[in-house]
Every structure is written in structure tokens, then in C-alpha cells.
């Protein structure tokens, strides 16, 4: 039976604080075991979902000070707490413990209750129809015929304790796994699901209608939600009706299709899906699921006086090869243009054709994407400051991506300006945060190495993993706002009106930036270059489009 608890402004009824004592280790183990296994400690009907249990050794402290043998247990019910909430709670706990206060981000106005209200107000018609159609005739209550070597105990004899078994793929198998995903333009997740479905198909001696649970962790879709404790996870069924006569490539495409469609409607709560099948008492598909975990590589790399500290070297473009590749291209007199290995093959070929590039640097994961690219030897070239250093594509949000041409003098003088004002120096540790499609990544990588600083390369998804970031770099403060300030050295800023004249004091105008940082124009798009770059008093300026005073 579902019960809706009345909304309260006082949240003290949602948690309880318990104090107990223990004498021996056996008594302590009993208390801990009870916290783990006793479902009656929470009262969901009254909204009691959080417990703080203070366990004192021998006697309760009169001054509320803990000794080294005292223990605090924080116990959360999963109805209001998912795994990302653990990092949020530990961060807040650490802040409150070290500073004596708890501050909130300026952009955090939402509460978990607000999220629940918004979810209830969302239109679920399309999602409801989708899941009714996908799960039509699916036997959700039927367990798979797996070859168990023993059968489970009756419910009254079960301990409800799980176990885990680990095994190593091995380097060769992992290597071939990554190559297959890259060469077929398919994600590792889809490839893994396809292999898993084949595994279940063979274990069940040919069952073709397979359904398993898939955990969804992307419901914190707004920045405000990333700092809120709550249950944002969802579980959806992933149904695969495979044909035993398919080749593996056909299965891959089918898994890719069903996964993409299911993710589109993954916001539909699991309880709503179960309510569509009221005659089912056992939801067997939830007994099977698949999770992904990545592991770190502690290798480090030194280039000159600079140190690179890599994170996990998984299938992404933030590997040590990209640093060596950029430096090699620039030192050989080439023009660096980043291409993401995650882009489809036709897009990569179109971008290469647009740059009229003759050479593409690849590694073992991307070589199959450029089989038709001819290879030539680099010739000795004298590089000048006016030569192009690299080409960076815009995002393409307003149309076809534009190729921005950046000269060596643009980049070098930019770094020199930053070092002149001590914004970047050899004692800095720089975390490489942006993707290779953003211009700032060149400054993060090459700029740091040029000044002799320390460069940290994060694992995939590391930029949004606060716990991981706190381990690789010491975060001590956040910047709330950044004023425009004064121009860097060798730069000139002007506020220009609609008549291309200097605006009067305190009058609004468009910000124009001139100096060594002005790029060389858009490759092959003179019409756009003429709009973006304007000559004033014999000097070239870039129109930012920003209105300032």
C-alpha cells in the first residue's frame, strides 16, 4: 500500500539520533550487524529514513566529546539515498566538521521535494505507451533457466547477504574488446550488453526473449540537482528478443537500437512500469543486471621539467598519446587539428577533407577509421610566428562547424601574457578539464608544459566526480564571480558603438579585442571572417558580440 506523507517544513522527524554503549567487541559487532540487517529501524510510514547512531565505549560522554574507541554510524534508507548522495553527504560532513558551518552554493535553490513534485507533473503519456509496447507479452515473472549447481534456501532461512566473484579479462582480450568497439563505431556499453545477452542466451540453452534490469544514474540533469541528496536513480527493464540466426553485427545493431530507445524513456519510474502489470507478483527481471567500473592506472610520465599525472587510461582522447602528438605536430611544423575518436567515421572524413589535411595521427583504437587516408613523410619546414599552429572547430551550434585558424604568435603571446601576470607558472598544477574540441585544452596541455608546470589528466567522467577530483588535486576554494578586469599585456580592448566608434563613458557598446591573440580567420570562410574581424585604425580587432559598459 502506498502512503503519501504530509509536507512538513520541519525535517527533524525524518531522522533519529540514538546513543548506546558497548563493553566488548562482540557487543559492538552485534550493534553494527543490527544496523545493517534490521529493516525495522526505519519507519517509512512516518518518513523516518535516516539514523545517526553514536556508540560510546563503556559510558556516554557528558560533554559530547568522542574518544578514539567511540563510533558514529550514519544509516540511510535507500528510498531517499542513492550512491552519488554518499559523496555529497561526505563532502558536507567534512565541511561541517572542519569549519563548524555548512554553506550552500548560490545556484542551489531546489530541494529533493521539488524534484519529486516536478516528476509528478511531467507528462508520462509517451513513456507509458512505449513501455507497454516494449514489454507486451514479456514474461516478467519468469526466471531464466540457468544451470544452478544448488538451489536457494526457503525465505525463512535466507541471510539476505550477497557475494561477488571477480575475474580478469586479461590485457589481450581487453585490447581486442576496445578495438572492436572503435572499428564498428559502437560504444563499449552497447558492446558489453550484446556480449552479456549472448552469454545469457548460451547459459539458458537458447532462450531468445531476455530481459534484465538496467540502472539509470543520469537523472541529475541540472546543475542544481548535483548537490542534492536523494534517490535520483531508476531501474528500467532492457528487453532483447534476439534471433539465433543473427550474426554478431546484427545483434550489436539491435542492442544499440533497443538501448537508445529505452534510455529515451528512462525517466519513467520503475514503479509505474510495474503498475502496468498488476497481475505479476514476482519481478524476475530485476534479478539480473549489469554494472560498469573503471580502474586507475598509476603510471606517470615526465616531459622535460614538466610532470604528467594520468588518470585511468580507458577508451578516451585524454591519454598520454595526445600530449606527445600535439608536441610532435608543432615541433615538426605541422598544424594541429583535434579529431574526437568518438565521432562517427563519416564526420571524421568530412572534417579532414575540410582542413585539406594530408596526415592523420592514429593509434591502435582509431587506425581503422582512416584506412583510406594516404600517408606521407614530413619534410623539414622552417616555422615562423605567422604560421598556423593549429585549427580548432567551433561547436556547430549555429550551423556547420567553422575552422578557426590560430597562429603560433597567438598562442605563444597568450601564454607569455599569462606568465607575465603570474596567472600561470612552473609551480602550478593544472587539471586538464576540457574535451579536445574546446580551444582551452591546448592552453591546459601545452601551456602548462611550456612553463614547466604539473599537468593532471583525469579519467573519463572525472570532471564531475568530486571525490575523485578531491584526491588528485587539493580544492581549497571556489571563485564566485570574475570581473572583466584589465587586458593582458599585448592585448587591447575597446568598447565600440554601432557606428564603429568608441562609446562614451558609461555607455553600452560591443567589446572588441585586439592584439596578439586575434586569430587568422576561419578556414575557407572569408565571409564569416569579414564579419568577425574588423580593422580599426590600422589594427585588427575581434568582435566578441558581448555588450558591456
TrEMBL record:
Annotated GO CC locations: cytosol; enterobactin synthetase complex
PROSITE patterns reported in the protein's UniProt record: AMP_BINDING
Domain AMP-dependent synthetase/ligase: 383-466
GO biological process, any: amino acid activation for nonribosomal peptide biosynthetic process
Keywords in alphabetical order: Phosphopantetheine, Phosphoprotein
InterPro entries, per the entry: AMP-binding_CS, AMP-dep_synth/lig_dom, ANL_N_sf, CAT-like_dom_sf, Condensation_dom
Gene3D superfamilies for this protein: Chloramphenicol acetyltransferase-like domain (3.30.559.10), N-terminal domain of ligase-like (3.40.50.12780), Nonribosomal peptide synthetase, condensation domain (3.30.559.30)
Keyword field contains Phosphoprotein: yes
Residues annotated as domain Condensation: 16-298
Molecular function, one GO term: phosphopantetheine binding
Spans through the membrane: none
Entry protein name: AMP-dependent synthetase/ligase domain-containing protein
Lineage: Eukaryota, Metazoa, Spiralia, Gnathifera, Rotifera
